[in-house]
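Researcher: Please predict.
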Amino acid sequence: MSTQGWFNRVWYDRAAPPWWLVPFSLTYGAICALRRLSYRRGWRSRTRLACPVIVVGNLSVGGTGKTPLVIWLSKRLRASGCKPGIVTRGYAGKLRGAHLVAVTADPALVGDEALLLARRSGVPVALGAKRAQAAQLLVEAGCDVILCDDGLQHYALERDCELVVIDADRRFGNGWLLPAGPLREAPTRLGSVQAVVINGSAASSPDRWDGSRDDPRPLHMRLHATHAVALRGGSRKPLSAFAGSTVHALAAIGNPQRFFKMLRGFGMTVIEHPLPDHAPLACADLMFSDGHPVLMTEKDAVKCGTWVDDRHWCVPVEARFADADARRLLETVVKCMDAGRRAQGNADPLPTRGKRHG
């Protein structure tokens, strides 16, 4: 079993972690609390950009659906007349520093998520471990609102709106902080964000999260897929056409089981090939001795080279909301943007005090 697989069993399949992990979690929690306090008290400087910043993050490690939500928001904001740009860390990419991401970029350099965002969102994307530097590139490129894919715990960048995405099935795992559990911050953090978005079935998730929020119910999002796209040639095929077939399913994402479960919902017999999140792909990972189709996520498809053939397909997904939840989410975001613009006035994009930290 891989290290990630072992931790997933501890975090999601056990009521309590091994005792020897608990001291590490307590230490981690103390360090995170001190770090957040240092920004709140002004001991460490924060960068305020000359435009509103919206952070889409999560409390737990692994995938919860942040990237599809960022893409959804970017399209809605652009349709309303805004000029959004997206900042991402560029995880697993080799580039250092802040860079704009081209749709033709090498995924080994920029990372799979950054390239996927550039191709799917239709808006400028910048990557950088120091989000403020990457976001400044977008401001200079003409963007008037910044969407941060992840970065809830990146307090060096001031933000006007925080949205948290929660996996409806995994929720908070065993409830412990890293490494004894999957949490980066305690669920009480939800009390300070502007909206909670639950990714998955509304029936499997309560409207309130253990008393951690006092405002109205969370919003419900689902990831919707209808077709597969051939990696060679780009033809489209309804997922319903794979019903009754045996397929290889490959997913190097935070929660591969979500992808496998979705394919089974279309009547496929799935041979699972889970890989660690952001894992690089090689030809051997995709070539199987039988002739079954190979279906993968979009995030994995951007890493495939020219060695794919007619068996290989990617399955694009898009975030969807009920009309009422979509309106409420957009109203929340726009309200925060307007408040941020009023508060900024002639905001200087540089830190107002102390040494700049990314």
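Model: The two ends are 36 Å apart (CA to CA).
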